[in-house]
Amino acid sequence: MHLPIAQEKHDSSALPLAGALAPPEPGDAVHERPRHPVSPGTLARARVFAEGLFSTEDGAPDPARIEWLVRELEDFLGRAGGNARLVLGACLFACNILAPLFIRRMPTLADLDPESRALALERVEQTAFGPIALGPKAILCMIWFEHPDTQRETHTEVSCLRSPGDSQ
Amino acid sequence: MNVTSGRRYAKPLELECDTVVVGSGSGGAPVAATLAEAGERVIVLEEGPHVPGPRHGAMRQSESVRHVWRDGAMTLAVGIGDSPSINVTAGRMVGGSSPLTGGVCFRAPEHVLEEWSSALSIDDLGPSQMQRWFDQVAKDIHIEDVPASLRSKSTALFVKGGEALGVKFDSMQRNTHNCNGCGRCNFGCPHEAKLGVDRTYLPRAARAGATIVSDAIVERVELEGGRAVGVSGSLLDGEYGAARSALRVRARRVVLAAGAMYTPLILRRSGLGRRSGSLGKNLTLHPSFRVMGRFDEPVRGWEGALQSAYSKHYEHDGTVLNSVFVPNGILAATMPGFGKHHAKHRALVGHLAMFGVMIHDEGAGAVWRVPFRREPLLTYKMTKRDRARVPVVLERMAKIFFAAGAREVFFPVFGLDSVTPDTLGKVDWSKIKGPKLECSSQHPLGTCHMGSSDAHSVVDPHGRVWDVPNVFVADGSILPTSLGVNPQWTIMAMSLRVAHSLAGG
Predict the structure, then answer these.
(1) How far B386 CA lies from chain A's nearest CA (Å)?
(2) Rounded Cα gap, residues B355 and B344, in angstroms
(3) B259 with B47: CB under 8 angstroms?
């Protein structure tokens, strides 16, 4: 099968060459590229999941940090590719529906308080369905630990890493 | 400017050259450099973006994952039967996975090369014949020992425990220069101390006149009269980086180096490589597991070289112990629990040491083409021999951590709480099924494997696809069997061998 070849032809020798690998042209840096929209449903389910995951003895986590986490996740999924959106979206959807059943509650994770969500997700993790909880848990934990407050609380400040936003 | 972005071209693009290399990683880059330096007009096509080292090194870990890791690190090889599902991570950028490795370099073990040369009757793959290619790569990418002073405390504790039990460890070798052990190799080296192909072979190729086109995806090899006349695909210049404009490169020779997950898909779409029926099969992954030990004292395992020591003490059992560390968030995620239970574990992160184990697996996976999707479906069925090794080696690692003074050990089992020296013997491994094991891989290999006959292999001993005279494969997919050690050095050596054969040297 042959693709239609267009009007505009370039000889490879006409392309810019030479020297060590130079930086991309302005506007082509990856963080400046437009990101794919992420469904509000996926983000809402991620928020529900995160509130359960990061709840403590003191109750639900700080709403501002959850808001930061969800914004970061939106950027993550908007850039990580269709497969990532599909996999993580499916995992969050499945957890939202399935997890309450493990503690004999209905209908969704969002209808439970954070402590019950944590209990329900923990039960999922202990079964053969564990991998569907691990996907969102891994991505959310990775981002969570990049927040300076988390690093302070857990004594995990990383000398080589800059603060969120510095790479922008 | 010597990397041109496919995003620049809003209209279809047609190029012409002597050799088009599909993929810019450890397989494609040595070929591009060799042929460009031999005077050929070379074009390298790379699906991912160009992210220069300093910019990559300034990213947070999750930024690196979202921008340059394939599928945001969520590629999964679906486990069949009692096999774990395996998270397979790879790079998608100029340089392929090379800028994301821990830099670990192992020569292919002698017994593996001997098997290739004798059992598979490929004479010049023997240890003495391959020596020159390994030596050349070592020089090209500056392979050096990791000094013990760069070891993280996490590694040092495990080594101490191992040595107390008579397990011998050695220093790893890596492709680095002036590494200060800041421990974030997998997310871009902030000091440009890691000499991946983006710092070595690709600049050499560019200096010799090669053109590197990023954000350009190849879908098939174009054929005319039984010969390849080039490749076709798309420029990723559409909305949000989607494919839009057509790309065609006419060339007198095609070298596929898209890796073991994607090269078989390109061949399959092109109707090539199917004679033996083994295209896309024989996938080996080096399934890897991580065990964590919790110590009373702070460990801060992220400080020090990410990977620095290994042990082949259990090589006879098909396992190699490798030092490793992961981002703290991932480390926390692999610990059991949610909510307050997990919060207790999160607080321990700074006190955790970690070590990894890699299984020298038998080819039991496959890469499948999914209709209407560009990404493949991976499946993996761990053989009984490999599956039986998992609990044995995990217990050995727990004992090593306890010998080093760990208070508790966390196994890579979903939802399983920690074990102590007293409870280690009570873990009933027969009840822990494969799907409950947390397993990862960075080494997909073997899906277009090399052989001496078209009846049982995809490429000939020179990397040529059996059914067409001018299409070659030069990446991890041509390795006839798994290695049992990190493969980048072997992939580069095999690619150099293919390249020099093409250049007539």
Answers:
(1) 20
(2) 22
(3) no
Decide if B449 is catalytic.
no
Q: How distant is the Cα of A38 from the closest Cα of chain B, in angstroms?
A: 12
**Nearest-angstrom CA–CA distance, B75 and B257:** 19
In angstroms, the CA B46 to CA B68 distance is: 12
The full set of domain ranges for chain B reads 3-50+96-142+195-274+448-503, 145-186+285-441
* Chain A residues within an 8 Å CB radius of B340: 55-57, 115, 118
Q: What is the pLDDT of residues B240-290, one digit of tens each?
A: 889 999 999 999 999 999 999 999 999 999 999 999 999 999 999 999 999
The domain B145-186+285-441: what is its CATH number? 3.30.410
Residue B339 exposure: Cα atoms within 13 Å on the Cβ side: 18
CB A45 within 8 A of CB A2: no
CB–CB contact B339 A56 (8 Å): yes
The answer to whether ipTM exceeds 0.90 is: yes
> Which CATH number is B3-50+96-142+195-274+448-503's, of 2.40.50.140, 2.30.180.10, 3.50.50.60, 3.30.457.10?
3.50.50.60
Chain-chain contact of B212 with A21 (C-beta, under 8 angstroms):
yes
> Which candidate, B184, B3, B215, places its Cα nearest to that of A162?
B184
Domain boundaries, chain A: 38-154
Per-residue pLDDT tens digits for B390-423: 999 999 999 999 999 999 999 999 889 999 999 9
Pairwise CB contact (< 8 Å): B74 & A3:
no
Q: Find the catalytic residue in B50, B56, B351, B443.
A: B443
